[in-house]
Amino acid sequence: MVDIPVLDRETGFIDAPVDPMLNLFEEIERMKQEKNAVLLAHYYQEPDIQDIADYIGDSLGLARKAAETDADIIVFAGVHFMAETAKILNPGRKVLLPDLNAGCSLADSCPAPELAAFKKRHPGHLVVSYINCTAGVKALSDIICTSSNAAHIVSSIPEDQPIIFAPDRNLGRHLVRETERDMVLWEGACIVHETFSERKLLRLKVRYPEALVLAHPECEEPVLRHADHIGSTTSIRRFARENAHDAFIVATEEGILHQMRKDSPEKTFIPAPPESGCECSRCPHMRLNTIEKVYLCMRFEDPEMHMEETVRLAALRPIERMLEMSEGVGT
Ligand code: 13P
Ligand code: SF4
Q: Domain 193-271 falls in which CATH fold?
């Protein structure tokens, strides 16, 4: 009898040997056909995963793809809240996450019971939550947003309606500046985007005076204030592709540089440096996924996302509201 490896919930992935001589690209492609599986990947995944994905996108693009797929299996190469969102939208399909421990510091910063208590302290407020949060937090929210549609969604809310914005304080502050709406902010942050250093960014600008600065709104204000363009990963990618400049300093997780360099091989892309000499501009959660883990999760169809139906239904409502409100809004 052949031993089938089982998922160890502590390690978070199927821990089985993978022959280093196996062509994982061919194997994954074969399983996609055989199992009617689709592989969705975020820009912060390692280049190999991006290269084998059926769709690479930002959080809004990925949620839209997950909502419209007819695949039997969705393999989500991203972090836990993204796979959870795909499951919320697809209760009847199998949703796989290569490593269950691929979390998110923003989602961790906002436990659902604490948000419930915060809501009680701010009666009458509408809760707009960034998609980087757990299903439990989504279930307590009125509308979900992503970095692509947040300004549009906040601006669509009647001006006399008080708003709580959770969990990212940096995106929240950026939205307050952009929309001129006064919102009560949850004090969460992304460990990756908060590491970028204004001091080092300025030094880079002196060294590359022609380069434009592209930044994700999860960065802190001292970095955002030097940005020529602020937007989601997809909009950062598009801006660099369509803009006539030939050098860009990029303040977001450096996985995105893979597509930017493929789009415009003749241009120069310089990752914005973190304050210390570490590799902190790689998301330690996103990077838990590897091409081997993608292969193993497809082969053994585990780790699979599961969710209580009451939570799923409560979390579905604000996601659907986001998809309706941002119909026609580009990523
Ligand atoms: P977007 O790709 O939606 O801009 O989000 C970035 C991010 O931090 C995802 O975790
Ligand atoms: Fe979360 Fe930041 Fe990693 Fe995105 S980059 S998954 S926001 S920790």
A: Rossmann fold (3.40.50)
